[in-house]
Predict the structure.
Amino acid sequence: MLKASNGGMWIQYTPGHEPIYVGCVDVEAITAPKGDSTPIMCHGEGEGEFVALGQSYAAPGNVTTTVKALVNLEKDVLDDWEGQLLNVYFMQFAKCDKRGIFTNYPKGLAMLQARITSDDDENVVMREGDDATTRSLAISAPPPKIRFRPVVVTRQTAAFAAAFNDIFFDPLLRNAGACGSYRAGCTDGFIACDPIGGATADMLRTADSGITWAATVDPFAAALAIMSGVRFDVDYGVKRTLVVRGTLAATPAACNYSDDDGATWQAAEVPIGATVTEAALTGASLFALDRSHIFFCTDGGAGGGKIYKSDNGGEAGSWTEIVVAALVGANNLFAIKFADHDVGLCVGAAGIIILTVDSGVNWALVADPSGGSDIVSCDIFNRYRFIVGTDDGEMWQTWDGGATWTECVFRGNGVAADTVKDIVHANDVALYMVHNATGVGHVHRSKDGGFNWERLDTPANAGLNAMYCCGTNSAWAVGEISAVNGVVLRVLG
């Protein structure tokens, strides 16, 4: 059981910077109005009878609370809050751990971009009595109230004797109603696999949140690896599954897609570009915001990595090369991600980091913080803040578009033979990443935007390849064959 005396409060000026501990405060209720619902009524059959046809929903309100602190002669950390928008963490821990260390607090709440709305000093001068002078700060932040819970990593059953290269889901929750029955977020998901030969498909699907996985029809020839995949709405009530394959000799890169959850695929793969032996290299080589904003980065065959964009669901004739040869040279490109329709990041070998702010029309080089390592993973929040991982076990974050970088510190970082394989986020402060160290993958979690990282107890594996984040306390990872089958891990709290 958790008690208020086991709690702690931190403030943070920027996500990913060090949270500042605020000791000796009282925080009672943290209120998060969810928005009321109003019935939509119509006259019924009988006199004075009404029938509820549905509900209308009001927007949620701001998250609010009051922080009560002692007032000292000396300036304290709360004095610097005036006029600032801060992240505020209210964390709780088991009392056996040392107080004031952020990573010792596994459970708690966060208010992002919080501001002071009222500042009241109490017990300032008393004719009688000797109570402590206190200060009450009413604070308010936009929704939601972020709730952190301890998470556990478990291996799920997926009886498929091949490496797993990527994992992706439909993230949205659906309430029961006109659109169908209730469906939790991340119910429908897919794993892209290496081939195991024969007629067995190289694609797995779950329709029950990963409890069971079964092979779909094969999107490509049986001997071809599927490297990366995405899901997006392609028509009313129709979701498209789009995948890209690994290398096929004397053949350009290609994709294929299914509009019925992998039951059928296009009769022929869709060529992308004309460079032979060109292919995807990682689970992050393909990214989609929607059917009109799909981006694909490659190894470029023998001529240096390339970027392609599809403006029509990955269909034939919709792919256009975005020329980046002058920036990339002969280097492979490993991962591409977008923060919105305009702002995107792509990373590659020999320290290549390129940024676009116009939906991929133009790209610009960003300073390499690694000293020339292969940048194999990335994640992006906006045009100024993004994070990259290297094949030398390093991870770097910037808040000014790459003008300056700060190295992220985590258990085992900075070993030349290790790799930060993938980085994903649920919001500005909840991040996950996979770090392969001496052939074994470890899942790491950050609750403060990337300053503190917790290495989670990760089941035995032979290296992890990709992650997918379903929420603050929920994520997935996949990897190489271990104990006969490819590894699929669920992170859940």
